[in-house]
Every structure is written in structure tokens, then in C-alpha cells.
Amino acid sequence: MNLQSQTFKGGIHPPHFKKSTENLTIERAKTPDMVYIPMQQHIGAPCEAIVKVGDSVKIGQKVGEAKAFVSAPIHSSVSGKVKKIQKLDTPTGNATTIIIESDGKNEIHESVVSKGKIDDLTKEEIVEVIKEAGITGLGGAGFPTHVKLSPPPEKKVDTVILNGAECEPYLTADHRLMVEQPEMIIKGLKAIMKAVEVTKGFIGIEDNKPDAIKVMMEASKNEKNIQVVPVKTKYPQGDEKRLINSITKREVPNGGLPMDVGVVVNNVGTAHAIGNAFETGMPLVERVATITGSGINNPRNLIIKIGTPFKDIIDECGGFKDNPGKIIMGGPMMGIAQHSIEVPTIKGTSGILVLDKEEAKIPDPDPCIRCAKCVDICPVNLQPLFISKLSLKRMYEEAGSYNALSCIECGSCSFVCPSKRPLLQSIRVAKREILSNRKKS
Length: 441
Ligand code: SF4
Ligand code: SF4
Hints:
Helices cover 28% and strands 20% of the residues. It has 15 helices and 17 strands. The strands form 4 sheets. It has a 6-stranded mixed beta sheet, with helices on both faces. Strands 2-8-7-4 form a 4-stranded antiparallel beta sheet, with no helix packed on it.
């Protein structure tokens, strides 16, 4: 493969807004007085609490057991005492939450020991370590990683891709992790490659991060099966199907999965967490996140303990500049708007973005002028104007016949629309209604 940046069809070029944090070294956030650890932080079945009020816990101790295959156990991020177990709001909904008061000692649980050399372990043992470490996709989607690494026998996987694109504006956590801890990422990649028995691993990085490309190339120079691939800086380059297409030229079919074309994709942060789980034995109890935006006083990249309230983190970053216009978990394109800062950090918290009132303003839409810009840029080749129009008329099944369910909700159509039509919002509604009607019938 040549080293010219690879890319996919469609996509947009939103402003990056990464300047304020892309050169900031990752720092460790303070241990909070209290952590709020939800039992649902991933796609799949929630966990069951296995501690009770009054129990003492340590860092890395399992506190939530996964009772289904598509689920991932949850561990304490502090040492201290369980104060309450109750339903609370989280960034993605409402979930049973274990509230632990930290004793400030940060004592580590006895189960946290190195898992040995990856070369000495079988693929089944590797998947088991990843499962028991509670590792889920750290790019935002939160899919349990051991499930991704257990494809059915009829799916022949021959390629692993690490996603270091970080195409969302504002976010720089993955960028900094690649620059600062490349060896741990490579270690995680090697574990993933062994788990799915492949000998070809790629690391796709957008070409607006030349320092990360250089460092990752240097760290992998003795690994003949691993190649760093610069990809064009274009949104949504980090969508896994776009990344597969950019790097391998394979097309994942509509409604299909990466494994249908022989590929497994994981985020670089996920690979880092896997590397760490083998080296130190520490399960996923903390993560790096970018705290940024026009409405925050001191943007930073922080290692945050899972369960730390957004409020504590925002305070540690100097608080709000003014009354914020919008708070988002993740980036501005695919992140989730938050109504409260009392919610806790979860495994999928890649960032906390605070926009000021001006930036958060939603413009009044004008009528569609049929310019077809939304069609030209849709990376999935949809016709957003028609799906949206049908959705706004509540003709959801008809919207479905325009492949509404294939929309990856990247928001590119809304971004380019000169009439500021509510394309993404209306397509989301259509998808929700189609799925709920299918469940009923
Ligand atoms: S229709 Fe969906 S996939 Fe296409 S540009 Fe809009 S949000 Fe992205
Ligand atoms: S970009 Fe906006 S104005 Fe242009 S066709 Fe699409 S919906 Fe209509």
C-alpha cells in the first residue's frame, strides 16, 4: 500500500476546533469524593450489582456481573465504601447505579495482576482476559469487545484495523494517547490480532495528526504485520465502514457488519485498554477524555475515573465561561446532548463538549431548494432530503423504502444543507419509528 492518504466517497470537511487541546499532555483528574457507577454502560444486557450497601471495595474489584454474552462486567474505579445502589440518570438513559464513597487511599484489589505474555496465551484465554476486564469500544459506541473478537466460524476474518481517525471536531483524546503511549496501543493490537487469528493489522490515522502517524510508525517499525495508514482528514472517516473502505477498498453491505468482509475494527483507546489489562491486570476503570469547547474555561485531556460526575470534571477545568448553551458527551456531530452535569463519566465518554449560547443556536430552517448537496456528500449514498420529507409527514414506512435504516447518523447532511433543514433529527425519528413498528408486528 502506498503512503498517500486513503479515503472514501462522500463526506464533509467541518472545522476541526482541535487547536485548544491537541498539544496538551494527558493529565490525571483528581479522585472524586464519590463515584456513580452505572450497571449499563455498554450495548447489550445490563450488569447485576454483586456488592451491597456497606461493602468495602478496592480499585479494579468487580462490582457488576455480566449475565449475558452481549454484556461486559463493571469494576470499581476507587477504593472506599458502597453508600447506595439506586436508579439514576446516566449520559445515555437511566440505570441502576452503585454509589461509592472514595476513602482517598486508591487501594488496588488483589485480583489486579499482570496476565502474562500475549505470546504464551491461547486465543480463548486472550478473549477471556478482555471479557473479564470489562472492555468495551471506547470510540463511543460501547460494544463489548470480547463479542467483536468472537466471530462465528463461518465468518473468516483476515484483517484487524485500529481506528485512530478521531474525525469528530474538538476531540483529541485518541490523538494524545497515540502520541504519548504508542507501545501500549501496539500491545493491545497484537492481542486483538492473536484473538482473531489474523496476521494483518492496520492503524488508520487522519493525516491532520502527523505527529501521531510518526510516533505510531516508529513504535511499530519492528512489527512486520502491522502497518500505519494515513487516511484523508474528512468526516466521517472514523465510521468503521468508511475506514474499512479507505484502507482495504472492501465495501460492507447495507445492514452488514465488518466481519462480513473479513475485518474487525477497534478504536485505538480500546487497544490501549486491552494492552493495559494484560500488562497490569487493571480492568477498564478509567479512560482519557477531552474536555473542551467555547463554553469551558480551561480545555484539557484528562484521565478520568469511570463514575466521576461531569460536574467534578467541569470544575477541574475551571468551570463554565458563562451559562452554557449546550453540553454534549462526545463530539458535536455524533455526541449525545446532556440535560444535566450530575451524570457520571461512563466507558464511552470520549469527551465533554461545552458550547456557548451563540454556537449552540439552532437556526430556523428554510424550504428545501433541491440543491442535492445532502445527496452528494452522504457517505452511505442515501437521499436525505426525501427520507427527511417523508419522516416529517410521518410516512415512516415510505422513508424506510429509501433505506432510512442504513443512515449512520453522521450528521453530514445537516451540516451541508444551505437551508438548515432538520435532516438528521427527522431521519433519526424515522429510524426509531420503523424499528418500533417492526417490533410490534
Ligand atoms: S443521511 Fe445519515 S448517513 Fe447520510 S449524511 Fe445524513 S446523517 Fe449521514
Ligand atoms: S441540502 Fe438541504 S436544500 Fe439541498 S437538497 Fe438537501 S435538504 Fe434540500
